[in-house]
Design brief:
With about 325 residues, the chain is α+β, with helices and mostly antiparallel strands. About 15% of the residues lie in helices and about 50% in strands.
Length: about 325
């Protein structure tokens, strides 16, 4: 092959690779961001990607594992209840906004740095006995509980991130069906379905150059089902469970770039719906009416594509979590 022809072939191959790379990025560039004024396009896309990155971690922190930590079956029918508090932390990674730069000249695919930070969530759980179940040999079947939950999101202000909920408290609900009531050598087996929602929140982050990225009216709704199996040995309770979570999140994107604000009209309104498998184990110490519960679990599954990439874990990476709770059962 002659040298001029060889060089021409290299140029052609290089050009084709460049076009394919640009096309690959264009496939994940948000159409809403592409339609914005050019100085806001990169801010819009980076904020959209941050939303896609954080939502699964927030969802896992909300759902946790057991609907009522340490409890495997129904609470025992009318007149019985479980009331507890729990704190959950996800092994999270969040964008390091000190090292992120917004480009006012148009969308630029960057590798966004992250830092390892636990993603916390605090909540309360209440289980109210509705029906104790029907006798079946040495056990009972068909017991029913009404489940209620509440999440609290405080206002948080730092030099780089500002978190402001519209209302700090949000109530959720669900139910539990007792498949087998724990008795003698028979373990308790139950099925739960729970809805948990995050209070509508606005998150504002400031990047390295002083530009701001806003997730306005962030709403995250979760639904979860669980199958749990457990047994109490003296004062120690053991529970194992598996299930599935669905996270449904949406937000409005806003930004300030080079002193110019995007105003009240959202730059984009991204929406994410993700389904993940959840597995966990509980260890509880049962002291008369009072319980202390530790929980460890993980969530995995689903696929998320972003225009920018993230250093470290991918947006859809598996996450582990731990919970510590306490409560009373009557």
């Amino acid at each position: 092959m002659s040298r001029p022809l060889y060089r021409a072939l290299l140029v052609a191959v290089g050009g084709a690779c460049t076009m394919l790379s640009a096309r690959a990025h264009a496939q994940t560039l948000s159409p809403s961001c592409a339609a914005d004024p050019i100085q806001f396009q990169d801010a819009c896309q980076k904020t959209t990607d941050v939303f896609d990155y954080l939502s699964p971690q927030l969802g896992t922190a909300m759902t946790g594992g057991n609907a009522t930590p340490g409890q495997v079956g129904t609470v025992g029918g009318l007149g019985h209840f479980w009331l507890g508090l729990r704190g959950t932390g996800v092994s999270g990674t969040v964008p390091d906004f000190n090292k992120i730069t917004v480009h006012p000249t148009g969308p630029t695919p960057d590798s966004l740095p992250t830092k390892s930070v636990p993603v916390p969530m605090a909540g309360a759980d209440l289980a109210i006995g509705i029906f104790g179940g029907l006798p079946l040999g040495l056990t009972k079947v068909g017991g029913l509980d009404l489940l209620l939950n509440a999440f609290y999101v405080p206002t948080i202000t730092t030099d780089k991130v500002d978190v402001r909920p519209n209302h700090s408290l949000k109530i959720g609900y669900g139910g539990r069906l007792g498949i087998l009531k724990e008795s003698g050598l028979i373990p308790g087996v139950a099925f739960t379905y729970v809805v948990r929602d995050l209070p509508t929140t606005t998150i504002t982050a400031t990047d390295a150059s002083g530009d701001s990225l806003r997730l306005e009216n962030l709403a995250l709704n979760t639904t979860s089902w669980r199958v749990t199996v457990g047994k109490t040995l003296a004062i120690v309770g053991l529970v194992a469970g598996v299930g599935e979570d669905t996270y449904d999140a949406h937000t409005d994107v806003g930004a300030e770039v080079d002193g110019f604000s995007s105003g009240t009209t959202p730059l984009a309104t991204p929406h994410q719906k993700l389904t993940r498998t959840n597995y966990f184990g509980d260890l509880s110490l049962n002291l008369a009416f009072f319980r202390i519960v530790g929980e460890f679990g993980g969530a995995s599954g689903g696929s998320i594509t972003t225009y920018n990439t993230f250093v470290g874990k991918a947006p859809s990476a598996a996450r582990v979590y731990g919970s510590l709770g306490m409560g009373i059962k009557i």
